[in-house]
Design goal:
Layout: H1 3-8, H2 10-27, H3 29-34, H4 39-52, H5 59-62, H6 66-88, H7 95-105, H8 113-119, H9 124-150, H10 152-158, H11 161-187, H12 189-198, H13 201-223, H14 225-228, H15 232-252, H16 257-268, H17 272-280, H18 288-315, H19 322-328
Helix pairs in contact: 2-13, 4-11, 4-13, 6-7, 6-9, 6-15, 6-16, 7-9, 7-17, 7-18, 8-9, 8-16, 9-10, 11-12, 11-17, 13-18, 15-16, 15-18, 17-18
Length: about 325
């Protein structure tokens, strides 16, 4: 199988992996939970492989399309947080449940959103070029949102030693190594060859990550089902509402059809795998948080199958170029 074939079939690879992981975890919850120690190293490798494919050294090019950049920041860091806060008012005000919902819904996806954007006939290259900006922005703003939405409780969590350790080892370290690899590739042929080899890592290790995550967490989801299930309607409502809000933003910033679709996928796809290590590092009192996050992943992967069909055919059709219409006005 070539890398292109692997990437083209990754959705089905993830689906099979999720089913297999859930089966293992439900068949033997104890065995599934014993696999949890593998999540961190596999996730770190996956994130490193993913980061090596992001053009961090071309961040200036990200801002070349100023309208798309402005729309992207507006929808992900103004519109979506307001929507998440409003939806969270419908949940029981239980801190672990709220924290799980906030962690996963406040952070835009920077990995498989590119695949779904391509399948949904959006501008995947534009979304790819924007990933460094999205990553840095969410790193800076997530603590701010948690403090605004949860107050002192969030401040205590954010200052926890394990939380900081997970952030450094599983996000900062892979990111730093990826930046070093990209610098190496710009000066040495061997570095370019290494970056090309690393392009095999994201799909392979994302599948492994999903397997270990679901196998380890499905038992907890079942154990805390009465609590976790309350987040599902919020996740479904989020995926239903966001495309229409993103389309309004796309029209306001006069984006073309493909860029508008890319904006919709960015707004509707969340960053569960990157925030998961932060959740796994929380104290035992917050043990339900990873299960709440993984539940969103399961809901989202099903929702994306609807997105790739409905976004180009209903939400943002080729014959509904609102940006052009606004320009004429």
């Amino acid at each position: 199988m070539t890398r292109e074939q692997l990437e083209e079939n990754q959705i089905w690879i993830y689906a099979v992996t999720l089913v297999f992981g859930a089966g293992i975890g439900l068949w033997s919850p104890t065995f599934g939970e014993s696999l949890e120690f593998l999540i961190a190293p596999v996730l770190a490798i996956m994130l490193y492989g993913m980061f090596t494919q992001i053009p961090f050294l071309h961040l200036r090019e990200t801002c070349a399309n100023r309208r798309f950049t402005a729309a992207l920041l507006t929808v992900n860091f103004i519109v979506v947080p307001i929507l998440v806060w409003l939806l969270s008012r419908l949940l029981p005000q239980q801190p672990p449940l709220l924290l799980g919902v906030y962690l996963v819904l406040l952070t835009p996806c920077i990995d498989y959103v590119i695949v779904f954007t391509h399948l949904g006939r959006g501008n995947a290259r534009l979304v790819l070029a924007s990933t460094p900006l999205l990553l840095f922005a969410q790193m800076l703003l997530l603590p701010v949102y948690l403090w605004l939405f949860m107050g002192e409780q969030a401040a205590k969590i954010m200052s926890a030693g394990p939380f900081v350790e997970a952030f450094v080892l599983l996000i900062v370290l892979p990111l730093g190594l990826a930046l070093a690899s990209e610098l190496w590739a710009t000066h040495r042929r061997a570095g370019a060859i290494w970056i090309e080899a690393a392009s095999w890592l994201p799909v392979t290790f994302m599948a492994l990550t999903l397997f270990f995550v679901v196998a380890a967490q499905i038992g907890r989801i079942e154990q805390y089902l009465t609590v976790v299930i309350q987040a599902v309607p919020i996740y479904v409502a989020f995926m239903f509402i966001v495309p229409f809000l993103a389309r309004l933003i796309a029209c306001a910033f006069r984006l073309d059809t493909q860029a508008g679709r890319g904006l919709i996928f960015s707004a509707g796809t969340r960053n569960s795998l990157v925030v998961l290590p932060l959740a796994l590092a929380l104290p035992n009192d917050w043990i339900i948080v990873p299960a709440v996050i993984v539940t969103q992943t399961l809901v989202e992967l099903v929702g994306e199958l609807f997105y790739i069909r409905l976004v180009p055919s209903v939400v943002f059709r080729d014959d509904r170029r609102c940006g052009t219409a606004l320009l004429k006005r």
